[in-house]
Design goal:
This protein is mainly beta. InterPro entries: NLP_P60_dom, Papain-like_cys_pep_sf, PG_Endopeptidase_C40, SH3_16.
């Protein structure tokens, strides 16, 4: 139980939609092993709060399992869980970057986990974080665009920012609006662009890859893609979504 009296649980499936209401639209997604609080359960649906960012929504009861203390997370862009410690054995699930598992032992190249056997090279201890959010985001280049997506199998602009930040130990909300208010330091208009900076529009966010290029999950490409920075600014304005509303810089990770 949590301090508030709500029940703690974890995500039991590879990726689960977090819905605005039972059978409603997707707002975000949660990944295998992520911790949640169950606020209410009714007619096969759970109203939950995600521990990582406080995001609330609904998902089927069947998507949840009892809470556990995970030991490792998937640090490769994606991985598979196998039925045996053998890459030729049947695969049980595809797991995205950021998924969390409990390792019970090791066998050759594989770790035995609550999801099956996962290649050791794809796993990182929970306490170990990455250091460069932009490099993490670049690992998603080519990932299909998915509104509300949070995984290597489909992601949107704010999902890309959140996954990269959390992997580097930077607290990050799930949506671009709160990200614009909370992430890093707001820079004055006309500031030079540096790799790893974030540019915001109303309803959109993009990484600065270099002073001339953006990296973002966007509908124009329907994927995570690189785009010329000035062309992107002009295109977004031309399509009616307005100018850049904020330029923010994340803290350096020591």
């Amino acid at each position: 139980m949590s301090e508030s009296g709500s029940e703690c649980a974890r995500i039991a499936l590879p990726v689960v939609d977090l819905l605005r209401a039972p059978d409603g639209p997707r707002d975000r997604q949660l990944l295998c092993g992520e911790a949640v609080e169950i606020l209410d359960q009714k007619q096969g649906w759970a109203h939950i709060r995600a521990t990582k960012d406080g995001y609330q929504g609904y998902m089927p009861d069947a998507a949840l399992a009892p809470a556990q203390t995970n030991s490792h997370w998937i640090s490769a862009p994606a991985s598979h869980a196998y039925s045996a410690a053998d890459f030729k054995s049947p695969d049980l699930a595809a797991l995205s970057f950021g998924s969390q598992v409990l390792v019970s032992g090791f066998e050759g190249r594989f770790a035995a986990t609550d999801q099956g056997y996962i290649p050791r090279v794809h796993l990182t201890p929970m306490e170990q974080q990455l250091r460069d959010p932009l490099s993490v985001a670049m690992g998603f280049l080519g990932t299909p665009y998915l509104w509300g997506g949070n995984s290597r199998f489909g992601i949107d602009c704010s999902g890309l920012v959140q996954l990269a930040c959390l992997a580097c130990g930077i607290a990050c909300p799930g949506d671009s609006g709160p990200q614009e208010r909370q992430l890093g330091t707001l820079l004055p208009p006309g500031s030079a662009y540096q790799p790893g900076d974030l540019l915001f529009w109303k309803g959109h966010v993009a990484w600065v890859h270099d002073p001339d290029t953006l990296l973002h999950a966007n509908v124009h490409a329907m994927a995570v893609a690189l785009e010329t920075l000035q062309q992107a600014i002009a295109r977004i304005a031309d399509q009616g979504d307005g100018p850049v509303t904020a330029h923010r810089r994340l803290p350096q990770i020591g």
